[in-house]
Amino acid sequence: MGYIGKQKTIYFHIDVNNAFLSWEALYRMRELGEQQDIRELDAIIGGDVSKRHGIVLAKSMSAKKYGIVTGEPVVSAMRKCPTLQSFEPHMWYYKECSSALMELFQRYAPIVDQYSIDEAFLDMSGTYTLYGDPVEFAHRLKDEIRDTLGFTVNIGISSNRLLAKMASDFQKPDRVHTLFPDEIQEKMWPLPVEDLFYVGKSTASRLHALGIHTIGDIAKTDFAVLESHFKSHGVVIYNFANGIDFTLEDRTEAVQKGYGNSTTIAYDIKDNEAAYHTIMGLCESVCVRMRKDEVQALVLAVEIKDSNFVVKRHQRTLLSPTNVTDECYEIACRLFDELWDGSPIRLIGVSANKVTDVGTRQMNLFDMESHEKLQNLDQALDSIRNRYGNGAVKRGSFLNSSKKMDKYDKQ
Known about the structure:
Radius of gyration: 22 Å
Oligomer: single chain
Strand order of the largest sheet: 5-6-1-7-8
Strand content: 15-25%
Shape: globular
Number of helices: 17
Low-confidence stretches: 249-256, 360-369, 397-411
Helix content: 40-55%
């Protein structure tokens, strides 16, 4: 069972165990010099303690026993547990921990695809001669992360990304699990439908109403039945229940053919302004990388994931290729407006594809003058950042919205 042959496609999905709580614990011990590890307390990460507002972003194992769930109001959690302590998040430190983790991955993996702030897919295909058996190496990697970075991870291993992600959600923390196609029936099918990737509360409730209670039940249900009740989403969960991965693979292909970046937000985005702010940051990141590589993109895409983990993607072919931040931002916002149905958002991604070398752009009469001005602005900003650092200059949109975004950072 499991890994067969040295040339088999191998993916790791690595997920930080209770990331925000673990990283906050490290922050308080390493940066503030505290002796107490908050992971050992009835603790949550969630908002202003004095005002008792915000939502629960993470919870300790002991707090979980009181029925506290991620996403509920802090005031509700405190009613459930009289001894509960709430700590405000320090997102800048969490990002540093995330960056350190991704840098470690890049030492070993040919391809690293960061999927969110605390998880990534590693394509380990063809690394057998370097590291030996993938499962044994995963254990060594897991231990290195724990011993050098100070927090634990779960590693799921399979021949495709979906199954690797499912495997990483098995027993926690600090574990390595496999879920190869020949292990699906034994390891995945007995699990409740709620454990299947892309099955949120609403879908799970409708599945139960149809008498479908386990992932195996989904896999054995007539394809046409699922499609008739859930449309295209039924097709997705039927394939996922049978271990067939296409959505995550398509996303990887898009990234490899172009430039992309996404971010998982610590709060639910519920208004356009917060979304636009995030999109600007993503466009800036993507366009800076394109300009550095002297390429431009002809296709721009926006991806969103809502609070039920439903992913939607929308793209557009441009009249002329570009790597100008403001041009990409304007188009990305339009794509977002066309894509978003108002559901709370947890992840936003922007990708630029079908890249060509700079200099091959054919100007159109509608943007010739404005494109040149914006291009000169980007070049000036890049020059300042290269000389004085990324924080030396910021776009006005970030400065104008910084006060409004502060309230989200503290939720």
